[in-house]
Amino acid sequence: MSDTRRGLLLGLAAYTIWGGFPLYFPLLEPAGAVEVLAHRILWSAVTMGLLVVVLGRVPHLRALLRSPRTMLLLTAAALTISVNWGTYIYGVNNGRVVESSLGYFINPLVTVLLGVLVLGERLRPAQWAAVGVAGTAVVVLTVDYGHPPWVALVLAFSFAGYGLTKKTANVGAVESLAVETAVVAPLAAVYVAVLVATGASGFGQHGWGHTLLLMSSGIVTAIPLIAFGAAATRIPLVTLGLLQYLTPVLQFALGVLWFHEEMPPARWAGFALVWVALVIFTVEANNHRRRQLRLLATTSTAA
């Protein structure tokens, strides 16, 4: 198997697993969203710690621990990803799978918008058009829902903020997530301990199957992350960028076809606008990349 084909399969695996999360988190009920989040953080910290050792990333971990700037950025990343995870678990376990998928559909557009607001980047006209169409979609969906789609907006902005801090920190994915989960693990441990002490914990109260499912949340978090990291080094960024849409597509399909969530005409119209915005955004990004490559080739030939 060629390296590119292996990378494509790994990318498909990562995004398919993330897309299937709406089937996994309901299995953790009757544990509440915050308790599930706490267990995900704790077991992810354990899993990522083991991976740091197994994959030989200990020297890299020590290096980033010695950098106050990097640790500050990873602490910010830990807080934003905790908000993202908690919101997603709440949405999926409260009949808002379709709205959760919206958050990841609009995430690329929110990311470029944060680039403008935080980094001072400049958007090209087609990118502004895509952001404008997406903004119109949010207005349409706000009218349809009777309130802003808060779950989608929190997911989109928290994940975009997470991506921004990770990009600025510029460290490896495994040791980064190990630090992030370790930073918030004490808070998660205290919360779980309080639940156990007050008899409100679901851990160990609903059979071994439920207990093992809670413990598996660390592995479920790690597997797609590793697959994504391996894919990113083997396939072009354009391919990886297109694959990212697989996750919200699967989540949306599960919400409509599996969980039978309501989709009135206005909601379909809002999502259609989002998809139009993504088509504009993706086509423009690919065309811009081709122009840059042609310019680079011309410059190299002239030299």
UniProtKB/TrEMBL annotation:
Source taxon at top rank: Bacteria
Occurrences of domain EamA (ranges): 6-142
UniProt membrane topology term: Multi-pass membrane protein
UniProt cross-references to Pfam families, sorted A to Z: EamA (PF00892)
Record's subcellular location: Cell membrane
Keyword Transmembrane helix attributed: yes
Main location: membrane
Residue ranges of the TM segments: 7-25, 37-58, 70-90, 102-119, 126-143, 149-165, 177-200, 212-230, 242-260, 266-285
Keyword match Endoplasmic reticulum: no
Record key words, sorted: Cell membrane, Membrane, Transmembrane, Transmembrane helix, Transport
InterPro entries: EamA_dom, EmrE-like, RarD
UniProt cross-references to PANTHER family, sorted A to Z: ACYL-MALONYL CONDENSING ENZYME-RELATED (PTHR22911), SOLUTE CARRIER FAMILY 35 MEMBER G2-RELATED (PTHR22911:SF137)
Family the entry assigns: Belongs to the EamA transporter family.
NCBIfam families from the UniProt entry: rarD
The name this protein goes by in its record: EamA family transporter RarD
Gene: rarD
